[in-house]
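Worked example 3 (structure in, sequence out).
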């Protein structure tokens, strides 16, 4: 994690220096976790830096905000451009991007209705989330004593700041016992997800994963992997995952923006399959990175080129109109997206 390389932050409509991007101690979100966030990755491609599935992440951001009655004072196009501005401004080729919208300072009554909605986007280079060797060697996980909250307690499909205290408890407890990551059970005893990842199992040639009925955040990466598996001819079954399903799996892996596709090699000391990255996990990883790098033309529409906007860190209020080159680039992008969508008729089981 290297925040040191980040110099510009987009805050409420303008790029400001990293050191000035501060929040007052009386901000509502600091006390009660009343914010919504996203985690997005930008990848280095032959066409320049490109944001992976920006639309899907922005959809989820607005949906999360809506659950909490928060009106984001910028539209989708403004936030998409703001994400690109941050990446361009900092000169990153690849990075992790964190948009956060939160209730700021005005009142500390639990109802945040009087608090302004602050919007901040920053980015930094973040290599592997679960350790340097995790993508190849896989991770060791433990079943957490902390249960994932049920959707009648907190909306599991919303990515809201305060909800992460559940993950923090689980991951701290797991790492304290020497594991790389925690697996949280849902209140019905089935497996929900990792502290910051969704889970997939491989049984023979079939993939198994769960959905929002089992207290998970519906991951953007999860969605991409379901489509990729489908295109590879691997059926995906979506149902509750029991602990037995995991222990008897041939392979298992996590998916997430930060974790990407990370094999799970062991659960509480018991190896999964051969106890190493399995062949289908490797195949899916390869296909995923082909999509993120732009080498897979079928999924080219998942990439949003960063270069298609003003090239200097200028405040959003001074945003210029599109040049002819930029307009043509967008037309090209939209054309290939439509073609790729048509080519990918894929319904998971
Ligand atoms: N579950 C949780 C709890 C998460 O925090 C994340 C990371 N956002 C995920 C799943 C994976 O979601 P995504 O693929 O959209 O990053």
């Amino acid at each position: 994690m290297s925040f040191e390389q980040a110099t510009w932050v987009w805050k409420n409509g303008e790029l400001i220096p990293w050191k000035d991007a501060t929040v007052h101690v009386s901000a509502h979100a600091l006390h009660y976790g009343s914010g919504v966030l996203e985690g997005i990755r930008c990848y280095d491609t032959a066409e320049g830096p490109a944001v992976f599935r920006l639309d899907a992440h922005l959809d989820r951001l607005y949906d999360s905000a809506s659950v909490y009655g928060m009106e984001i004072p910028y539209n989708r196009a403004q936030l998409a451009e703001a994400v690109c501005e941050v990446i361009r401004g900092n000169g990153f080729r690849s990075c992790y991007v964190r948009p956060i919208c939160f209730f700021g300072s005005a009142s500390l009554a639990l109802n945040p209705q009087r608090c302004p909605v602050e919007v901040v986007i920053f980015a930094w280079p973040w290599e592997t989330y679960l350790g340097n060797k995790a993508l190849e060697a896989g991770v060791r996980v433990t079943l957490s004593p902390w249960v994932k909250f049920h959707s009648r307690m907190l909306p599991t499909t919303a990515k809201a700041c305060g909800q992460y205290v559940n993950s923090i408890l689980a991951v701290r407890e797991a790492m304290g016992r020497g594991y790389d990551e925690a697996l949280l059970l849902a209140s019905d005893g089935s497996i929900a997800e990792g502290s910051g990842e969704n889970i997939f199992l491989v049984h023979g040639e079939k993939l198994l994963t769960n959905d929002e009925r089992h207290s998970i955040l519906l991951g953007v990466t999860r969605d991409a992997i379901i489509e990729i598996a489908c295109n590879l001819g691997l059926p995906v079954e979506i149902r509750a995952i029991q602990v037995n399903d995991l222990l008897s799996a041939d392979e298992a892996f996590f998916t997430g923006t930060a974790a990407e596709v990370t094999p799970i090699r062991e659960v509480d000391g018991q190896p999964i399959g051969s106890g190493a990255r399995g062949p289908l996990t490797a195949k899916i990883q390869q296909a995923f990175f082909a999509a993120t790098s732009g080498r897979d033309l079928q999924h080219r529409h998942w990439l949003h080129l960063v270069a298609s906007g003003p090239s200097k860190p200028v405040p959003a209020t001074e945003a210029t109109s599109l040049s002819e080159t930029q307009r043509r680039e967008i037309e090209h992008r939209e054309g290939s997206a439509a073609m790729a969508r048509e080519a990918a008729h894929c319904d998971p089981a």
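Notes: Confidence is low (pLDDT under 50) at residues 310-346. The longest helix spans residues 324-343.
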